[in-house]
Amino acid sequence: MYHHQHRHQQHGNPFAQFIRPFFGGWRRPKHNVPMNVEDHGDHYRIMLYAVSFDKADIKISVLHDQLIIQGTRAHDPATDPAFLLQEYPLKSFERTLPLSNRVDTAGITAKQENGVLVLTVPKKPEQVVNVS
Asked: Where in this chain does the record put each SHSP domain (predicted)?
């Protein structure tokens, strides 16, 4: 049996604890949207697949050193098709990420591009490491 092992840099990655292997892949909790987190040196870039949620449906907040991203929209289950497979939520989602003291929460920005919510989370200057 082949077991694919992902190796993630644990040192300095505040999101590492939320990456959980599951049978060689990644398991996403129900009612959450897929998410990518990238490290760009002086900032993190977070991309959430929030298809069918308008900008007005999404709330981003920081509470107790956690970044909370919530989407809620009106939804009538009576209009649902007969799903054979459903992989993204239609009514609501929530993602929570630890921030620690490594980021500048006042500088967080967000925009929506083709159903993807893109957040830029700047690091505090003392957390930026220049590699030469």
From this structure: 26-132
